Amino acid sequence: MSATLAKGINSFKDVIDAPIASFFSSCVHCGLCAEACLFYTETGDAKYTPIHKLEPLRRVWQQEYTLLGKLGKALGLSKPITDEELAEWEPLVYDSCTMCGRCAMVCPVGNDLTYMIRKMREGMSASGHAPADLVGATTRAVNLGSPMGIKWPAVLAQIKHVQDETGIEVPVEKSGVDYLVLMSSMEIINFPEYLSALSRIFKQAGVSWTLAQDAFEATNSGIQIGASDLAREIVSRIVIAAERLKVKCVISPECGHAFTALRWEGPNLMGKAYTFDVKHILEVLDELRSAGKLKTNGKDKRPLTYHDPCQIARRGGVIEQPRHILGDIAADFREMPDAGKMNWCCGGGGGVSANSRAEPLRLEVFKHKKGQIEATGVKTLVTACANCRIVMEESLEHYHMKVEVIGLTELLAEYLVEDKAL
Amino acid sequence: MKQANQQDSQLGTVGEGLEQRGVTRRDFLKFCTAITAMLALPPSMVEVMAAAISKAKRQSVIWLSFQECTGCTESITRSHSPTLENLIFDLISLDYHHTLQAASAEAAELSRTQSMKENEGKYLLIVDGSIPMGNPGYSTIAGMSNYDMLVETAKGAAAIVAVGTCATYGGIPKADPNPTGAVSVGDIIKDKPIINVPGCPPIPVVMTGVLAHFLTFGNIPELDNLGRPKSFYGETIHDRCYRRPFYDQGKFAQTFDDEAARKGWCLFKLGCKGPVTYNACATTKWNDGTSFPIQSGHGCIGCSEPNFWDAGPLYQALSMPASATTAMLGGAAAGAVITWHNRSIKSAAKAAHSKVTVQELTREEK
Lengths: 422, 366
Description:
The complex is a heterodimer. By secondary structure, chain A is of the alpha/beta class. Chain A has three domains: 5-130, Fumarate Reductase Iron-sulfur Protein, Chain B, domain 2 (Orthogonal Bundle); 140-289, no CATH class; 295-414, Rossmann fold (3-Layer(aba) Sandwich), CATH 3.40.50. Chain A has helices at 5-15, 18-26, 32-36, 38-43, 55-65, 67-74, 83-95, 102-106, 113-126, 132-143, 152-166, 185-189, 193-205, 221-225, 228-244, 256-270, 281-290, 320-329, 359-376, 386-398, 408-414; strands spanning 179-181, 209-210, 249-252, 277-280, 300-307, 330-333, 380-383, 404-407. Chain B has a five-stranded parallel sheet, with helices on both faces. In chain B, strands 4-8 form a two-stranded antiparallel ribbon. A two-stranded antiparallel sheet of chain B has the order 5-6. Chain B is globular.
């Protein structure tokens, strides 16, 4: 079995639904989406205009689903989609789109371009035009359980480390608890602070939670590469574990697309409603805070700014919660321009950071964020997505900027009032 | 406000009122000159108009608002204050106006009936909004249906000014399928002179111009076959459009973002309705003469023409058939066939979809 052009085109036909047809037919070619796109504003290259990235999909829509297009196709007036064309578009669809959704916010006719890119990637991957690195990551996610090839023993090692450090037991495979906690590979390998911070916070808040052996990984490469069949398989592991452990809520970790995959795409991929809630960790922390279960002491004196991860803020609606938390623990919080739902992407979302071919472009477009960070004058950048974090750490390093990037959960844990008697 | 107006109307003329407000003779003459020019009257009429307006008694005006969005009122009251137009507007006696009057409930209705009694046969009636002929409950004022209030108030009016496309032609409320059975003022009132001032909203200065004409000559300006003052609606937007030379040279913008659009070429192919729209936008412009839609890069939508909302897509060029019944029927039939065909394409694609495995993410030959 192999990817073929025919499969790809069939997939394009399959994914074009009423929203996509109406989006294409209502586009007025105003070009506002270009100005909203990091890849256009930082390079000035018109090929990065978001709607242009969808051109092959638009042609399929026109040729297959519109009267004039069908006539043109029958009369041989419009050229069919070719492999060469898809190969040309591959970097546009995968390397220069982080699915950040900023273009969809400014579209005067309300076209959700992110949704269209997500659907277009279905045909790109089915025709063998997905970046090799994403294919690798997806293969590892499906075959090994995690895009970075991490298996349960690695998580166990981290659990042991966290238990030694905090003296708090990390619950595993506990049934009937309130929360199932997930992590992203990045947190397991690069940011073990997350699990440690969470253990301490949940102990103080008296929250019952667990990790699951067969569902510790929150990320979903199937979403990034655009293969719903694989995305379904990956998300189903979490759904099965959550149902088996009868948890009330699954917590999506500090990871952007994992939240999108689990919270918004998951039920549609599974074809049924969840029996549990899905919340982002910041939502859970803010709820605990409002309920008075989370006490902090003191404030961070360093000037801080907060980078909104696109999938959590713009696509996920979690905007106020981090600001509530930072209001408690930051003495000098400085907002970047366009913060919140119109934030600028770190440049590495939507699979771009997993795609080594895209690295030079990603570093180029980071200049926008770089400028924003410099304008605030902070040396400490807080965020709530491990992917944004690693992308920004690498980019800051590249530009020789001495700015530290930290996760909000671990920052909160630093100011947690801990009752040792508990 | 009403009390003050009554006192003014008893105490003095418009000229005295202007003087009290610090409007100089020079400013006043400038205003009269502008209005005279706009009404296409000979220059000798400036003096006549100045004399007539300054001596005129404050004109009693009753303003009724029916099925409307208040855009007309917004347009007129917020014109570009403070200008002479506004002052003139202040110096009529606006005895009843939902949005602007201070009085409410019974006191408000009382001011209408009182003014009707005191100025019988002399007051000017301004109407904005269409009148629902379906269920009267779609729009009532003080428990009274729009139809009843219009008929009652029109009876003693000297003339009626229908303001905005809703009052003049039914406007957006009348757009297909016209759920409220909306009709225009002219559809109901047949025995009074009616001046139609269409536009969505109409240009403020057109309104003040019509009022000035009425104050000067005591009659209504010359109207065209659709009841519009010829001086403002005599020519199309296209006739007076500054982009007209591009049209004549065949230079058209093809999309809103092409080089031609940036150069300011004609927007005809992007659906501009300027050639069939009679209005003064291209000459008087909006917001203190700042700009008008075509100048800011968008075609005219023809908002001052009857049934503009149902006259075909806004972005379709005029030369294409827009609303022919046969085309519509043919389109509906073709649409049904296409829908059926499209569905079969999509379901075939769905059926042809084989579950993607990780092996299938790459080509074998790769």
